[in-house]
Amino acid sequence: MEINTDQINCHGNMCSKGETIKDCRYPMVKMCLTGTEPPRSGEGLRIAVYQGEGLAGDQKAIDYNLKCLKEWAEKAASYQAQILVLPELFLCGYNILPNDIDKVVRTASQVQDLVGSIAMKNEIAIVCPYAELDPDTGEHFDTILMLDKGGEILRNYRKCHLWGVEEKENWKYPYVDDPKKAYQPFKVNGINVGLINCYEAEFPETYRVYALKGTQVVIAPTAADVGTVDKNGVFASSWIYPDISKTAIPCNAYSNKMFTVYANHAMRQFRSDGSLSGVYLGNSAIADPYGELLAHANNMPTLLIADCVPGNYLPTHPYGESDYIKDRRPELYSALTKMKAKLPDGSTYHYPKNPNKRS
């Protein structure tokens, strides 16, 4: 049975056979605010994270997910949130099969046209992950578009660390010729913000690079799943993606004196024909510089909202004389940038100069 997206309430649930369940109740809203008003410019950010169900794989999916985005941007704005963060590949759904790609890829300017008006209407910056088509090269990327509250592009960040066979088949590795373009922070409400994408949230190097550039908030859309349906129609559920929302996310916030924001899908995604696409962990979280979770979601449609105010956090060590950034010894870390690594079994791994040509 094909899903009629016009009948689906963005607050409701869809069952696996394509029927729709109407539910007018709002999903859970979890907040951790420092006051009734959002932080002033240069003081901090009020960040909203949306997680929920959606569709994947074609234009109907994009239309439905965009409808949900409009609704949740309005909801986040009603709480005076200054940024709305969405999960990985939110616009088209995460589990994109090879035959889906041409149906769902869009240029950055096309996504700006779709989402920019929503940002402007609600006066809220939006982190919108999507499947990108580079109009110059024809290449495809797993990308995060960051728009300011006026709908202008602040950053179009392409995922640098691709996960699993499927991602490496679908998307290209970016920034091969100009790696300095990869981790560049930008300002929102006077606060330095950086973007990483899903699997990259498990690499401590990404946070540290941002920390060394003065970044105060790192945002990581993700698609951590229980299992997805492969191109042969088989649901692979022999493993569950590790829940890093309670480990790597707060740990890297603490060790880099920053806020970390993790936005995952919740529950299930379907294809527009009603078939299951994937099941997700729904473990979105916002962590503070003390490594504590300001807000954390269970696996249900949820809007997290937290005030991230750097000035509210004192040094974590006595007298403020110890600092994870200032006390580094860069001269000792040359192994981090070498193009080979010694593995525990004694073998040597050589990193390819161009990961797109990885054998």
TrEMBL record:
CN hydrolase domain location is 45-310
InterPro entries named among the record's database cross-references:
Aliph_Amidase/BUP, C-N_Hydrolase, C-N_Hydrolase_sf
Q: Which GO terms describe its biological process?
A: putrescine biosynthetic process from arginine
Q: What molecular function terms (GO) are annotated for this protein?
A: N-carbamoylputrescine amidase activity
Keywords for this entry? Hydrolase
The answer to keyword Hydrolase applying to this record is: yes
**Where on the tree of life does the source sit, at the highest rank?**
Bacteria
- This chain's protein is named CN hydrolase domain-containing protein
Organism ancestry? Bacteria, Pseudomonadati, Pseudomonadota, Gammaproteobacteria, Vibrionales
